[in-house]
Amino acid sequence: MHVNYHLTLKNLKLKATPKRLAILEILADEFVYLGPDDVWRRMKTKFKRIGLPTVYRNLEELSEGGVISKVVHPDRKLYYFLCKKQEHHHHFICLSCRRVEDISFCAEKEIEEEVAGRIQGKVLSHILQINGLCRDCSDGEER
Ligand SMILES: [Zn+2]
Ligand SMILES: [Zn+2]
Ligand SMILES: [Zn+2]
């Protein structure tokens, strides 16, 4: 783990507080998305008196700053993960085990053509999150 989070936060004009750095380290160690309560439980080993609202607030600030990503989950709860990949890409999330995988496929060109043609608009950005079951989780399913 050699990512310089101090620098990342500074570039985003977010203060590199010990709590923010601890949250980033917790998320960086994971291959799954975590809810605020998961992060909170882990934070408590280091910050004994930390409250859940503080964790909520810090996660939201990091997400708004673009340091971490927020999952749009069908259960409508909040989940976050940290992706270190810089290039434009998307994510596959497993709804069962919460695994997050990078997806490099992007239909950017087709989307732009569709928008330009059908509604004569211009695409500025897009969000794509693919929900599903990973291989391990779909093994037990009927095919
Ligand atoms: Zn899974
Ligand atoms: Zn990613
Ligand atoms: Zn894309």
From TrEMBL:
GO process terms (BP): negative regulation of DNA-templated transcription; regulation of secondary metabolite biosynthetic process
Cited CDD domains: Fur_like
Keyword Nucleotide-binding found: no
Chain sites annotated for binding Zn(2+): 94, 97, 134, 137
Cofactor note: Binds 1 Mn(2+) or Fe(2+) ion per subunit. Binds 1 zinc ion per subunit.
Entry binding sites for Fe cation: 88, 126
Name this protein carries in UniProt: Transcriptional repressor
Keywords assigned: DNA-binding, Iron, Metal-binding, Repressor, Transcription, Transcription regulation, Zinc
Single GO term (MF): transcription cis-regulatory region binding
Cofactor (UniProt): Mn(2+); Fe(2+); Zn(2+)
Family as reported in the entry's similarity comment: Belongs to the Fur family.
